[in-house]
């Protein structure tokens, strides 16, 4: 009975005992931050935080945008893909296209006070080449960088690379302060010459990155806001809720969530960045002999009713296609768009001619999120007598598995880049998505022609595109619409080949 | 009592050690080419080898484990392989968010579940039936569905709360309160219904015991029987249920934090696991195990305090 008085409060015993443990929770911090959005502030919902602010760790598309806030690039890529001067005022190749001479601005400083000059540009390009970043291949053709004078550098190439100028508008062209490059500090706090400077105190890893306009920035046209907040919202539902409730001004959604955003009168900007379809990798038939047969590969292409699949599974958000090269690449061709129209009879006929009738079975790993789509493909292939076996889900060892030839075929979404970028992604023998190293002398010649074509790389790549379509290296289904939504406080211009626009493409709505 | 606590603490440390060994071994042997994942799909084999050396992945497993353990005992949990942010820092900024939410939800669950459960057990009749039906409905709706529903009505339609968290460095407690309200309610409903159900059964069971009949026969008032005797005997069962709920909530909170974009442990755990960022995953696992051990220890202590028999056994 010694606990008597305490026991009298027994109705609360259960709760109180738990409450005792609750004192640990608390909050921290000082200072002020307002979430209010005015015309001078832009808040964007982004898909994930950067792993490092080191410019050499920059990536493509939505993983490039945050860097653009803090860093200028040598060349500016405008929304239509046109390359314009930025930190580089002019650039010119020698006749052999093995040396690019770049003139630089002389009036730019970094946010730590260091001056931008030829030495700084060289330091950045050298750093990019050896920093093991995800896009380090962008400078793989660069043999060395030479300082000519205070505002000129020569970029020497081991072989011509038509995409180099494009790369200098991307990750490889981002310029950080030479004093900060290679330090640990720049991994968590960018030091660039860009339109905005990070407010480290207000930024929280994986939650939000806050930027303020840089005082005295050299190009006011690219600095349209006083404050920029990138709110990291992994979950598409969270992004949708944040957008329709006015917490963010713009974000990337998918067709399903897009419906809700449209209901809340958000504006949609679409462009096409990826293609979706099957990669018939084992064209030599080393693991799956049927895939070595052109007729089998073509039959697979004829088996799909692309339009219906698109309408049913993707709510119509995309364009059916038979070619892997994108519209902005220059290699795209009207004739190839419907090269393989839906024709199950022809597919059956081709299979009969191939001699593999009733004997074609294709294993693909399951791409998370694409389960419905893959089951539709399975059904349509079954209709022409081909068995599709969706296997285990793709894991984080995916790229290593592809390289190790684990998969003879894949269903995947792939980026549609510049001609040489696309070739080195899916066609050439060094491409990750050509693990069986399929090639012919004819194709090698076509690829070489693209590499040496300079500004006509797109036109030359049409031949490569035609080759892989006719040879049915892939079974492309459609180009997928990227669905970027924004409210009426901001004007947004989509950026060619990017799901998420460049940071310069936002402006306050008048 | 001190001996009892010491014994429990000792076994807690053992559990922590065993879990760390198992987790470490599982993670390091099943996660494929980590260096390749960090460097991306265009890295050459030489770059991958260099990265593996840098991370110490070329050393035998037990060497790596003991080096991790040595550092961890010294308070150094290492740094993320992807972001280089010290794991201890990541945890320090995130644990307060998750713990505030979990404990706020737990306190409310404990109070509401106890009141509802006891009311249903004592009153029976229609009160009991309403509680029973409510429990089934509440228990069968997942927390994240409730979360999305709350956001749609209260945040988007009525604008009463922010749709996603506005917690950031330097904000006042009022921002924490408004940002946490909807996620806490989303966590709450399952817990209250489940907890009330268990507490109801425990109280009913006690009320049917002989000692209650004896007390009644001696003319002791219902109120005194309930508060002085029945609840004290029913408390251990209720406590155990609540502690299990708290531990379960550490998992449920992952999804809730994503929906409300709360900068807590959930997004960190998801991101680190997806990337195979092993130092961070180890940190998250250790934190979870410590919370589980501490909660169990506290429940044991409270149970021991309420019921001397537990201490003896």
How would you portray this structure in words?
The complex is a heterodimer of chains A (510) and B (313). Chain A is built from 17 helices and 21 strands. In chain A, strands 1, 10, 11, 12, 13, 14, 15, 18 and 19 form a nine-stranded mixed beta sheet that branches. In chain A, strands 5-6-8-7 form a four-stranded antiparallel beta sheet, covered by helices on one side. A two-stranded antiparallel sheet of chain A has the order 2-9. Chain A is of the alpha+beta class and 510 residues long. Chain A has two domains: 269 residues, Periplasmic binding protein-like II (D-Maltodextrin-Binding Protein, domain 2); 208 residues, Dipeptide-binding Protein, domain 3. Chain A is 28% helix and 23% strand. Chain B is 81% helix and 0% strand. The mean pLDDT of chain B is 86. Chains A and B meet through helix 2, helix 7 and helix 14 of A and helix 2, helix 3, helix 5, helix 7 and helix 8 of B.
Structural class of the secondary elements of chain B?
Answer: mainly alpha
- The tally of domains of chain A stands at 2
Spans of chain A of at least 5 consecutive residues whose pLDDT stays below 50 are 1-38
Described by strand count, sense and barrel closure, the largest sheet of chain A is:
9 strands, mixed
Number of helices of chain B: 13
Total DSSP helices of chain A = 17
N- to C-terminal distance of chain B: 12 Å
Kindly state the mean pLDDT of chain A as a whole number? 88
What would you say about this model in short?
Chain A is an alpha+beta fold and 510 residues long. Chain A is 28% helix and 23% strand. The termini of chain A are far apart.
